[in-house]
Amino acid sequence: MSAGTARLWPWQLALLGVLLLGWHELTAREVLPSFFFGRPLLVWAVLRQWFTSGLIYPHLGVTLLETLLAFACGTLLGILAGMWLGLSPRVAALLEPYIKAANAMPRVVLAPIFAMWFGLGVGSKVALGITLVFFGVFFNVLQGIREVSPVVLANARLLGASPAQLLRHVYWPAATSWVFSSLHTSVGMAFVGAVVGEYLGSARGVGYLILQAEGVFDINAVIAGMVVLTVCALLLDALVTRVERRLLVWRPTPVSAAHADSR
Amino acid sequence: MIQPAPTGQSQVRDAVALRGVSVDFSTPQGVLEVVREVDLGVGAGEFLCIVGPTGCGKSTLLNLVAGLLVPSVGSVLIDETPVTGIHSAVGYLFQADALLPWRDALGNVAAGLVFRGVPRREAEAEALAWLARVGLAGAARRYPHQLSGGMKKRVALAQVLAVNPRILLMDEPFSALDVQTRAQMENELLRLWAQDRKSVIFITHDLEEAIALGDRVVVMSAGPASRPVGSHVIDLPRPREVEEIRMTPRFLELQRQIWEQLRHEVHAGLTRTGAWTE
Predict the structure, then answer these.
(1) Nearest residue to B203 via CA among B180, B226, B184
(2) Which 3 state secondary structure label does DSSP give B225?
(3) Which of the two ends of chain A, N or C, has the fewest CB atoms closer than 10 A to its terminal CB?
(4) Residue of A152, A159, A174 lying closest to B115 (CB–CB)
(5) What sign for the dihedral angle of Cα A218, A222, A224, A228?
């Protein structure tokens, strides 16, 4: 973080305080009906209850498990498909309209189908998450493979690289570097897949908690669920940033800039 | 004025030979003949420089020798054997950046050895020695984007030389460097070349560079359908210091002689492109 944003954080925190206070005041005076808008102190009470009673952990665990599985499987499938089509232009040309169609389709509507195929458990959520993660990774890898510099490739071949070595030492790093550049979106997508899946039909997970609360018009619990999800998303994002810095040291931007700052 | 190629050359076994080579490319405008009926030989241990106007297919010749390109007519021979693909005796220093961006300097120099089956530890020790030879031992752990243009060229040179090719192809390798760095690189190249005298084909558009480095300078005619039109033996003594040798009378004499011919081709090339745009 640069010096400018470092000095900003007390202000950012203050802004959060003002917003919370404003929310509190408006709902306490019933300017905003608390039935629809909830109350921050009650939300806090729900959160405390969830965490002290331990009620939240199994739900959070399931949601995170779904996220991670969807992310891992979606990324792996995306890399494999991207490399395959990147290296076989004919197949890519053949499949192009289908890929376009599949990408253009709002894939959330697949959730009910997956629920029928894989039941209401973890499987259907992972499947939905995979369809969301896959395309981002796939298109990035495809692009990465197509944009491998022909000079770098010729150089590697002249240095004696066999086709297998080209795959491992040139295409693979080129493809994965593009994966990492879409890592933030992929993790976010996996998370969306898990929560939306739970929301549409499940017996566990944070999405399920929200759905339950909504069913009994408990707005405070709904908001508490949203807070848990947001914090989780931020933590995952921070984790991704760390991994990215570790793995992409060879890239000129923006990682080296971040490095220069951390010195 | 124009000295014919020394007749002794054809009797000695050439390390590289192009015999009646033509290359056609099909373009949307029709078939383009890049080079036509090229006969060219490079002796073992000879430093051959090729100069010519822009677009005369100089790089095409190197790609033929490297096995990246197949001639439409004629044959390319290395040690009297036709080239059928990439040859392990050939090293190629590209004009553009060709380092693997995701490997540090050491990893890049070691790459060729690793590809050829040398165990990683051994390859890295060898690579470190090569980095030291090009004056970059301290930059072993830096990635290409953290190196200057001159340093990248040194790493690329070390990368090529590490696999110990007998034939070294160089395609305007120093054209993107500033004048001082370039002279330094040229001297370094001559010093490294003198140690084991590889056969070198060095492409450049800079006649001074060609004379300062080469044993022989070949002038290509303006493209398309380009071919060698002159071969000049450079009888300057070695070892050479490129900045100093440029000021010697013999150098200037050779330069005047070759320029006489090159100027004609450059002019032809310019009128041709001019006519084309009209």
Answers:
(1) B226
(2) coil
(3) C
(4) A159
(5) positive
Q: Which of B101, B112, B145 sits opposite A159 (nearest CB)?
A: B112
**Separation between Cα atoms, residue B171 and residue B200, nearest integer Å:** 11
Helix (H, G, I), strand (E, B) or coil at B96: coil
Whether residue A160 and residue B145 make contact (CB cut-off 8 A), yes or no, is no
Say what the ipTM of the complex is: 0.85
Cβ-nearest to A160 among B99, B146, B163? B163
Contacts of A155 in chain B (CB under 8 A): 92, 94, 98-99
Cross-chain residue pair B111–A173, CB shorter than 8 Å: no
Residue A247 sits at the chain B interface (C-beta within 8 Å): no
CB contact under 8 A, B100 and A158: no
Q: Which of B3-10's residues contact partners 24+ apart within 8 Å by CB, and which partners?
A: B3/B230, B3/B231, B3/B232, B3/B233, B4/B231, B5/B41, B5/B216, B5/B231, B6/B233, B9/B41, B9/B43, B10/B41
Inter-chain contact B97–A154, Cβ cutoff 8 Å? no
Quick one: which of B19, B23, B42, B20 has its CA closest to B32? B23
> CB distance B103–A252 less than 8 Å?
no
Chain B partners within 8 Å of A174 (Cβ): 102
3-state per-residue secondary structure call for A58-105: HHHHHHHHHHHHHHHHHHHHHHHHHHHHHHCHHHHHHHHHHHHHHHHC
Task: Give, for all 263 residues of chain A, the pLDDT tens digit.
Answer: 455 566 888 999 999 999 999 999 999 998 989 888 999 999 999 999 999 999 999 999 999 999 999 999 999 999 999 999 999 989 999 999 999 998 888 888 888 899 899 988 899 999 999 999 999 899 989 888 988 899 999 999 999 999 999 999 999 888 887 787 778 888 889 999 999 999 888 889 999 999 999 999 999 999 999 999 999 989 988 888 888 888 777 777 654 444 433 33
For A248, the closest chain B residue by CA position comes to B102
Is A169 in contact with B86 (Cβ distance < 8 A)? no
Query: How long a stretch of residues is chain B?
Result: 278
A10: tokens are 């007390």
